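Na+/melibiose symporter, pasting as requested.
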Amino acid sequence: MNLSPSPTRNQTIALGLRENWRAFSLLVLVNMLVGGMVGLERTVVPLVGTEEFHIASGLVVFSFIIAFGVVKAFTNLFSGVLADRYTRRNVLIAGWIVGLPVPFLLAWAPAWNLIILANILLGISQGLAWSMTVNMKIDLVGPSQRGLAMGLNEAAGYGAVGLTALATGYLATRYGLRPEPFYPGIVYTLLGLVLSVFGVKDTRAYARLEGFRMQVASGEEKAHRPGLLWVFRETSFRNPNLFAVSQAGLINNLNDGMSWGVFPLLFTAYGVGMEGVGWIKAVYPVVWGVGQIVTGPLADKIGRKPLIVWGMLIQTVGHAVIGFAFLPPLLSGLAGSVLLGVGTAMVYPALLAAVSDAAHPSWRASSLGVYRFWRDMGYAIGALMSGIVAGLWGLVWAVHLAGILTLVSGLLVWKRMKPS
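Structure tokens follow.
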């Protein structure tokens, strides 16, 4: 990719949130719809597995999360390469097209294998669409407002996850597990596709402009344009900050993958009703989402590392509140979910901003793809771990193990990551 913008482009585009607020706002709306597609599954699908398909094995029930996590992770890995080759906008549109069958399969699939197929498609869709909304917002705002941009992006996405999880719990209580709870997904996919096709403009020129400015400031004659293997190694292992960020992202989403599968079954076993489970599942991503409106710009002011370390520690406390059941089940679930949401809100925009800090614009999209590969592999690892642990020692031990891993991850960031 040639980082030097054309003179015409250089005159007509500018980096910054204020300068690009219309395009940015549209992408926020699109990402709300992307997040809502994940929220469809948070409350109801594990119970569809146990109650409608009569699946007794936790590992089999959690298989839909494993499928989603693995596919989304690998799609993330290649999304940056696809964006550079086919433009961000085209990849975003492709993500919505792949996601079109998902709500129909979730609502009417006659077999569990088709639910897994829906999650394979959802993983591809999310890996393409969510990755592009992240990249496009980073392109638009430039280096000084990345934390704010990521806070707003993730707030929109995960706020929609939580509100949709709450809505599906209400619909399931009123109408049953299927098909009504999945009707909102039909609206999300159609509206998301229409907005992406007719409203969203590509942002690759903004990344070129930022890279050109960095090239001029550093005196470089030509920007480094590495291949995906080099970026994978740099992001995964060689760069201390990128390594710390990648492992923290993995553990953070391990928590989410665990809660996705375990919480509906655990709190139903404790006697909490469907609406109560819906509230527990909604509080976590809503607090996570809304909190990023504050923590995103805070990451720009105080740096990325403090938010990441303290966010992981607060999540550890949330696991303890749920795992040790200090309170009645519903209150324990709500309190623990609030703490998990606060901790994740601190971590999420700081992690994305830290990757953007460390990666040059010429390979930033690929580096973000590698980071999101490791982060979203956490869904699969968390679900797999939870299924195995629940089968051996019970559901609550999946919560305990996730808490221990989160504590270790936070300490690793404190030890390895340099402030930025």
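Note for the archive: The chain has a mean pLDDT of 89.
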